[in-house]
Amino acid sequence: MGACRRIFEVTLEYAKVREQYDRVIGSFQALKHRFADLYLSVERANAVGYYAALAIAEDDDRRSEATHIAKATAGQCQNLVAEDGLQLHGGIGYTWENDLHFLLKRAKATEVLCGSGAYHRARLAALLGLVGEAA
Known about the structure:
The chain is mostly helical. The chain contains 5 helices and 2 strands.
């Protein structure tokens, strides 16, 4: 979640200084809405992560479900924030001078190593008995 929050913060700071059409891009209403959505995504993933940590710490019977929910939510958040952050930075986000391209690669690598959101949602559905056993 640290990477998600960092990408969000860096992108927000960039939007406060980058000018287009003689205005700071952070002043455009469409971008304000987009930042609000990104913020909610980061906070939601953070809250679900705390829930999973609490379930594990208390040896709750729902710890497997909580873990899959947290991993699916965090993975979705990481991809969303990384991709949107890169787009909101524009061309500068793709340069070697900027760390966003590295953070997007890291998000994709984490998805491969830890499982995609779709994988964790399928495992959760199987644990809850909503479908047959997930692969």
